[in-house]
Design goal:
Helix content: 40-55%
Number of helices: 5
Distance between the termini: 96 Å
Order of helices and strands: HEHEEEEHHEH
Length: about 190
């Protein structure tokens, strides 16, 4: 009987010691895990807010720039000729870079370009010619269809050296969230060889 009581007491003591050891081993691990989880959560939220602020800054810089109404762009595609050759106009003033085309249901008033219906961002070594192709049905079909069915389009050109165009296009697509509109990719995938 004494042996049985001793065994029960020892068994209870071992059980308590075991529980205390498990607690002593697991508690710091759980606290460590929670600390790491909190840090990861904080960094994720912080990084998202930094990216959101950067996107807003890029968009605001674009909105401060000069947008050209598509009818004005097309009207000034060729402004003067020498014989059969156009010698001035957007056709003759081409450069490399990116462009932002915004689509609206109505004509924009008071230069409020931030409430657009759709957006398309692209790049070209000849940005004016590329945009002209979109407006005349030889480029992005969605843009031409919008114009054909009465929507209003505005374009802004962002000149850029050829080597910087991929990075700029990706930044613009991300900032305008253009993949939810007319851009099918994140952009920046064009490889040009010299």
């Amino acid at each position: 009987m004494i042996v049985g009581k001793v065994w029960v007491i020892m068994n209870e003591n071992f059980k308590k010691i075991g529980e205390q050891m498990i607690f002593a081993i697991l508690f710091p691990s759980i606290i460590g895990f929670l600390v790491v989880l909190s840090v990861v959560l904080f960094l994720t939220i912080h990084i998202k807010s930094v990216i959101k602020a950067q996107n807003e800054k890029v968009r605001n810089n674009i909105f401060k720039g000069e947008f050209i109404y598509y009818k004005n762009f097309e009207m000034n595609w060729i402004t003067s000729r020498y014989g059969n050759k156009g010698v001035s106009g957007y056709k003759c003033n081409d450069t490399s870079g990116c462009y932002v085309i915004l689509i609206f249901g109505n004509i924009v008033e008071n230069e409020k370009y931030d409430n657009f219906d759709n957006v398309y961002i692209g790049q070209s070594i000849n940005i004016c010619k590329r945009v002209h192709s979109h407006f005349t049905g030889k480029g992005k079909g969605d843009i031409y269809a919008d114009i054909k069915y009465g929507k209003e389009a505005y374009v802004q050109f962002i000149p850029s050296p050829i080597e910087d165009m991929n990075k700029l296009e990706k930044e613009l697509i991300r900032s305008f969230n253009a993949q939810t509109s007319y851009n099918n990719t994140r952009g920046g995938g064009i490889v040009r060889s010299n």
